[in-house]
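S1.2 Input.
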Amino acid sequence: MTALSEQAKDMLTNAEPRIGGKVGIGSEEAEAELRAASLISPKRRLTRLGLQLAREYQRDFFGGEDEWL
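S1.3 Output.
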């Protein structure tokens, strides 16, 4: 797994329920990142995720990034 997907997995598995049913991550920085991500439209979030995964795939299998990504 990539570092980003490991971090996301850790954030989800270490999340603890908080008062009011909200999920807490533990660090304020991680919570701020999640809040910021929730403000982005789902379509844009998927586009960003797709581009990021394409970059990671290209870096892992082809040894570098191309200009188009």
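S1.4 Remarks. The chain is about 65% helix and 5% strand.
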